[in-house]
Amino acid sequence: MRVVCAVVLIFEVIVIGLFIPVAISLEGMDPALAGGLWGGMAAAALVLAGLQKYRWAHYAAWVLQAAFLFSSFLVSGAMLIAVVFVSLWVTGVIMGRRTDQMKAAHLARARAEEEAEAENAVSASSGS
């Protein structure tokens, strides 16, 4: 799950960063405000992408998704892009959890088979 979430965050860095020139040119927003708002979110997304192995970073990325969604109200047309990326995030979390569960079940099954084989080898060698 964490790998998928990190990939979504990396793509978000690019998209969030592109909000800056759009907000300045189309909405007439102050460059300092646009750069601070979306530049800060892009930097946070980049840092959180690298820290997805930590539980707190995963939850912080959820907060970032909410901030991204709410800040998209400031730029016309940005809401659609924000909704797409938040949807990708939610889908990544859901599919990532399913994949993690399948990997864990496969690993448990493989360990059980190894233990059974080792047990059979021990009983076969002691029976000889």
What's the end-to-end separation, in Å? 48 Å
How many β-strand stretches?
Answer: 0
Percent of sequence in beta strands: under 5%
Q: DSSP helix count? A: 4
> Which class best fits the helix and strand makeup?
mainly alpha
Oligomer: single chain
User: Would you tell me the overall average pLDDT?
Assistant: 91
Helical fraction equals over 70%
How many domain units? Answer: 1
H-E order: HHHH
Q: Note poorly predicted spans.
A: none
Protein described:
The chain has one domain. Helices cover 88% and strands 0% of the residues. It has four helices and no strands. Helix 1 runs antiparallel to helix 4. It is rod-shaped, with a radius of gyration of 23 Å. The termini are far apart. The model has no long low-confidence stretch (mean pLDDT 91). Keywords: Membrane, Transmembrane, Transmembrane helix. InterPro entries: DUF4233. This is DUF4233 domain-containing protein.
Task: Break the fold down into its secondary structure elements and pairings.
Layout (H helix, E strand, L loop, with lengths): L1 H26 L3 H20 L4 H17 L6 H50 L1
Helix pairs in contact: 1-2, 1-4, 2-3, 3-4
Organism: Nocardiopsis lambiniae
InterPro entries: DUF4233
Protein name: DUF4233 domain-containing protein
Short description:
This protein has helices spanning 2-27, 31-50, 55-71, 78-127.
Could you list some keywords that capture this structure?
single chain; 128 residues; mainly alpha; 4 helices; 88% helix; 0% strand; rod-shaped; transmembrane helix; membrane
